[in-house]
């Protein structure tokens, strides 16, 4: 069968690659499996149930879940095969943004995972005229449960209606609207068709390596990134297409134990997670003391000297691999074929370290507007420090100002109800403007150098690309988050959120009392002096005009909840600056 629409994928999986554990979610401490057959029949029930509720093709239904789970997958299938447009929403945005999205998309029904999300939606429900009802996945007293829709669709005599609707859906029809939080302004609704996402899935399939010895029936994926995010969602379809089992992780905090239980072969990650995994490995190695620590640092030093990816060779490397790096692999379940990294730039240093420790990472690049993958590395063709070769079905063109632009089947239809913004997003010859700056090297690999809109000029007229500098600085154990500032100012400075836990350990080792709360630690002069040394090291790799001249430490942790990071953990630059405007003024208030 040919796959043209999203719901063709589960039907293809049922016909060609059926299994008993297509999706697995943990409920009350127990992993519960859903087979391919069960998945398709529950999806059909949802379709029939929604038709009974009077839902028609083109209607919009919101899906919001704190952690990805099987119910989301069933809903997604049930909606897409009757032409309903799914609007997945990030769980941790503000009630005001919920209200804006629901009204903008004219949401008819909303399905939420749990009590907290229910409260959020109920808060704004009266301001959303189109909203007819809210269903929950968890059993919550007094709330309508999603099983009521399944029960409505129990009678399969109307299945013919579902099939008629399915047959009338075209590849070019709208499948989903994804609102991107954006680092500025109101969320914008990105309209993606079935063809957009399907072409991206099929275009990405050749890039994902498979183990010859592994049957699809035994292949496991651990999924923990938000499924409302197009990166995880596209992979969710790609894994179904390959017949892999998808285990939904309980939460980022439970990742460690879930990895050990599932022993996944594939996992998608964001750079922040790779950094956290490495920090954990490093801290464990550094604090084990005595001979163990000595061996750890010796092995790490050996690994850091490798500038290319290669298998361990020579007696020293083989010993290091056996004693140290095999433990890293075990920490990730011991069976990882590859981690797929997207959403932001991964530091070249970490990428090399993991690759050479036997944990391959495939770094890629894309945007919600491109469904999302534009380019990705593969085992056959990989170059560290790049985001891989563009997909074969896309054309990538670098504009005169260095902006990466792209044309092809996975490029979105436009922004929902916003023709002006849609028009501005394309060049005259129909290429989508990514807003990123980059280049294509002589071997055809795409390299991203910065976000166009994040670049700024100092008052001396020099351009600064903050992300590049921030990635260099984040190699330091002391620095958890950093934001380089200085738009229109005389020189670049930086707001830094120290790694408070690491700072405490450092202070203990050096018999310093720097306090225990973020406020106390951030105001420690000793810590500031020490971090200035780290920044000095970073500055050695930078041109004179880009060097960070002053820093201030922020007295709190930057989180999604506090509005300082986007749901994919990117900096909300405007919000960070506003939040710490006093520290900003302190750095610039006194310069001559």
Layout: helices, strands, pairs:
Blueprint: H1 8-16, E1 23-27, E2 30-34, H2 36-52, E3 60-64, H3 70-80, E4 85-88, H4 95-105, E5 107-112, H5 115-125, E6 133-136, E7 144-145, H6 147-152, H7 159-167, E8 174-180, E9 188-193, H8 194-204, E10 220-223, H9 230-242, E11 245-248, H10 255-262, E12 266-269, H11 271-287, H12 290-304, H13 314-331, E13 338-341, H14 348-356, E14 361-366, E15 373-376, E16 389-390, E17 395-398, E18 403-407, E19 414-415, H15 419-424, E20 432-440, E21 446-451, E22 456-457, E23 463-464, H16 466-473, E24 479-485, E25 493-498, H17 500-509, H18 518-522, H19 525-539, E26 550-553, H20 573-579, H21 581-589
Parallel strand pairs: 1-11, 3-4, 3-5, 5-6, 6-7, 10-11, 10-12, 12-13, 13-14, 25-26
Antiparallel strand pairs: 1-2, 8-9, 9-19, 14-15, 15-16, 17-18, 18-20, 20-21, 22-23, 24-25
Helix pairs in contact: 1-2, 1-9, 2-3, 4-5, 8-9, 12-13
Report the average pLDDT across residues: 94
Number of domains as seen in the coordinates: 3
Instruction: Please describe the biggest sheet, giving its number of strands, its sense, and whether it closes into a barrel.
Output: 9 strands, mixed
The first-to-last residue Cα distance is 71 Å
Output the strand order for the largest sheet. Answer: 2-1-11-10-12-13-14-15-16
CATH topology of the largest domain: Rossmann fold
Query: What would the principal axes of the Cα set say about the shape?
Result: globular
- As a whole number of angstroms, the C-alpha radius of gyration is 25 Å
Identify the CATH homologous superfamily of the largest domain.
Answer: ANL, N-terminal domain
Class from secondary-structure proportions: alpha/beta
Unreliable stretches (pLDDT < 50, length at least 5) are none
Proportion in β-strands = 15-25%
Helix content: 25-40%
Q: Count all strands and give the number.
A: 26
């Amino acid at each position: 069968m040919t796959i043209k629409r999203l719901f063709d994928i589960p039907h293809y999986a049922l016909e060609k690659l059926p299994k008993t554990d297509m999706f697995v979610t943990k409920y009350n401490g127990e992993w519960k499996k859903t087979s391919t057959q069960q998945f398709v029949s529950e999806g059909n029930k949802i379709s029939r149930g929604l038709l009974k509720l009077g839902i028609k093709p083109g209607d919009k239904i919101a899906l919001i879940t704190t952690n990805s789970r099987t119910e989301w997958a069933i809903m997604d299938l049930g909606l897409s095969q009757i032409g309903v447009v799914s609007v997945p929403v990030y769980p941790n945005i503000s009630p005001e943004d919920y209200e804006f999205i629901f009204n903008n998309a004219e949401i008819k029904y909303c399905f939420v995972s749990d009590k907290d999300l229910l409260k959020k939606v109920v808060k704004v429900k009266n301001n959303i005229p189109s909203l007819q009802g809210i269903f929950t996945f968890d059993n919550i007293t007094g709330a309508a449960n999603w099983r009521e829709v399944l029960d409505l669709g129990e009678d399969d005599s109307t299945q013919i209606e579902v099939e008629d609707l399915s047959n009338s859906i075209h590849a070019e029809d709208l499948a989903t609207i994804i609102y991107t939080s954006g680092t500025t302004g109101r969320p914008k609704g990105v309209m993606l068709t079935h063809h957009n996402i399907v072409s991206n899935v099929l275009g990405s399939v050749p890039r994902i390596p498979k183990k010859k010895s592994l049957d699809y029936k035994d292949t496991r994926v651990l999924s923990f990134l938000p499924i409302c995010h197009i990166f995880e969602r596209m992979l969710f379809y790609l894994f179904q297409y390959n017949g892999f089992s998808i285990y939904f992780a309980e939460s980022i905090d439970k990742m460690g134990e879930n990895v050990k239980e599932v022993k996944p072969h594939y996992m998608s990650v964001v750079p922040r997670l790779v950094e956290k995994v490495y920090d954990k490995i490093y801290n464990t190695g550094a604090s084990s003391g005595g001979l163990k620590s000595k061996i750890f640092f010796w092995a790490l030093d050996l690994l850091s000297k490798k500038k290319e990816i290669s298998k361990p060779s020579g007696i020293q490397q083989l010993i290091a691999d056996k004693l140290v790096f095999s433990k890293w692999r075990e920490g990730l379940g011991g069976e990882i074929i590859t981690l797929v990294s997207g959403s932001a730039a991964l530091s070249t240093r970490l990428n090399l370290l993991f690759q050479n420790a036997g944990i391959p990472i495939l770094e890629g690049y894309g945007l919600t507007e491109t469904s999302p993958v534009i380019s990705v590395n593969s085992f056959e063709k990989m170059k560290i420090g790049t985001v891989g070769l563009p997909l074969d079905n896309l054309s990538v063109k670098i504009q005169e100002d260095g902006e990466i632009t792209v044309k092809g089947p996975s490029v979105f239809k436009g922004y929902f109800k916003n023709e002006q913004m849609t028009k501005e997003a394309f060049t005259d010859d129909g290429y989508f403007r990514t807003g990123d700056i980059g280049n294509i090297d002589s071997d055809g690999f795409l390299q991203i150098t910065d976000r166009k809109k994040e670049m700024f000029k100092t008052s001396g007229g020099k351009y600064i690309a903050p992300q590049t500098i921030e990635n260099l600085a984040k190699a330091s154990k002391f620095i958890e988050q950093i934001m380089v500032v200085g738009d229109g100012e005389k020189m670049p400075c930086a707001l830094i959120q120290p790694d408070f836990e690491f700072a405490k350990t450092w202070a203990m080792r050096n018999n310093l009392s720097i306090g225990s709360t973020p406020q106390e630690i951030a105001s420690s002069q000793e810590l500031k002096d020490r971090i200035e040394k780290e920044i000095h090291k970073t500055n050695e790799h930078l041109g004179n005009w880009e060097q960070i001249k002053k820093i201030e430490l922020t007295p709190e942790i930057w989180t999604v909840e506090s509005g300082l990071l986007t749901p994919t953990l990117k900096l909300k630059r405007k919000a960070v600056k506003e939040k710490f405007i006093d520290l900003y003024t302190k750095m610039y208030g006194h310069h001559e």
